[in-house]
Amino acid sequence: AMLLAGTDTTAGTLEWSMSNILNHPEVLKKIRDELDTHVGEHRLVDESDLPKLTYLKNVINETLRLYPPAPLLLPHSNSEVCIIGGYKVPQDTIVLMNVWAIQRDPKLWSEATTFKPERFDKKGELEKLIAFGIGRRACPGETLAMRAISMTLALLVQCFDWELTSDGKIDMVEQDGFALKKSVPLKAMCKTRPVINKLFK
Description:
This protein is α+β, with helices and mostly antiparallel strands. The chain has helices at residues 2-23, 25-38, 54-66, 99-102, 142-159, 194-199; strands at 76-77, 82-84, 87-89, 94-95, 160-164, 174-175, 181-182, 188-192.
């Protein structure tokens, strides 16, 4: 069940991440430079490389901040009367957390609507990220999802050169729904990089 639940949200996060990367060529270059430094061009990126790819992780975290896979997380029901944000909430009320709004709140984030991966270099920023929820009821698939997204993105950047199929920027309009998807699917052209030609001669 966990694998099935994570498939759609992981694919969506990959699409948002690639869209952000292609809309910001300087970000693509930084990821590629990091891969060249820590992995090189004589082998493919491996899971053991991921802890060294801090900028790549920042890009994924910033994508999750702006485009959380489940913008309202999962519904919760309180077992007793409680106070939330100064409001008395009766027992057995369905409670939703608007993580999309929280992660774009200018009181919590500087330049809240700007895609800025380097913000996560600053101490304390990562602790504010709640795309997977928090506490005992956080998403149990977070580690698996982050590994899958990190490995896939790293390989897409390492192995291919990317170009937009049209002039201008990629449309970042969101579609309504439980899982946050792009209104207009990502379209891009890729061609193999020399690393692939060397490895598969």
